[in-house]
Amino acid sequence: MKKKIAPYLLLTPMILIMGVLVFYPIITTFTYSLKKWKLTSPGDIRFIGLKNYRNILQSDSFWYSMQNTVYILVLVIVLTTILGCLVAAFLKISKKCSGILLALAILPWALPPFVNGILWKFVFFSGYGFLNKLLIGIGAVEKPVEFLASRWLLLFVISIVVVWRSVPFMALVCLAGRQSLPEDVYEAAEIDGGTKGKIFLHVTVPLMLPFVGVGLTSTSVTAINVFDEIVALSGYSDLAKNILMESYLTTFNFLDFGKGSAMTYIVLFFALLLGIFYLRSLNKEVEY
Predict the structure, then answer these.
(1) Cβ contacts of residue 222 below 8 Å, gap of 6+?
(2) Is the pLDDT of residue 175 over 70?
(3) Is the pLDDT of residue 286 over 50?
(4) Distance CA 230, CA 120 (A)
């Protein structure tokens, strides 16, 4: 009997912490999302069901933010996957200074997101930004490029900053995955007459897919929840707002806690879908 109760007693502190810090806010936020709750009219708080969700999905502002979110998501996924795999391959090949290179690779991941945004703002800033100085210096352009004044250019810059922060994790996951692969599989493939190209295509790629999936899911969640980089580069303007920024502005600028909570749940829904895929990638068995 004691053996059956002991695990639950040991888990009780964590269950209480999760209940207070995770489950209670989630439930409370959901109840807010079903109400008309604006701080500008505190006397008119009432239950309205799914009306907040319906108004959000019919809003042009939401779909504008969704376009920006999808644009950032696609760019971040593509660039992070390519660069992360290349960095992992380079770290795998380099032996002499692999420790130093690994520390340098982790540095962008260790810096706070807002700091990363500020650093890159000096690079892409109009007029005296480093990139504009470089382009004008080599004669590529005649006048400074307004990187942060155009919607799509600004979203591209934000994506670059997020990629800069996401590549280290992807590289570490891919590097750990590659180092965990058994060498006898490659020896058997070479004995069977496999070329380097075929071995990479038919052995390395299938065995690395679960590790790449973990990195991709984490990167996708980061791309959807990007906030600090947008604030650092463009402030709270509508030009590059994503769905998380839309939720923040609705809640704290317009003081509409009901609609803002519904927007938060929409963001949570997308993150949940990616989280499910993330857990499936972790639990996926690989047969060597």
Answers:
(1) 76, 162, 165, 166
(2) yes
(3) no
(4) 11
Phi, psi of 49, rounded to the nearest 5 degrees: 70, -130
- Give residue 63's pLDDT: 92
How many residues does the structure list for the chain?
Answer: 288
| Residue 254's CATH number | 1.10.3720.10
Predicted TM-score (pTM) of the model is: 0.85
For 157, the domain range is 33-117+147-283
Q: Could you give phi then psi for residue 256, rounded to 5 degrees?
A: -100, 90
Q: Residue 28 domain-assigned?
A: no
Q: Would you state the pLDDT for residue 288?
A: 42
Specify the number of domains making up the chain: 1
Query: Which tokens belong to 67?
Result: 């376009």
Residue 1 lies in a domain: no
Give yes or no for a contact between 116 and 222, defined as CB atoms under 8 angstroms apart.
no
Of 15-29, 201-215, 243-257, minimum mean pLDDT range? 201-215
User: Within the chain, where are the H helices?
Assistant: 2-18, 24-33, 51-57, 60-93, 98-110, 113-124, 130-137, 151-180, 183-191, 196-199, 205-224, 228-234, 243-248, 257-283
Residue 43, CB half-sphere, CA atoms under 13 Å: how many? 0
Residue 206 domain flag: yes
Residue 3 maps to a domain? no
Task: Give the model confidence (pLDDT) of 176-225 as tens digits.
Answer: 887 877 777 777 777 777 777 777 777 777 778 888 888 888 888 889 88
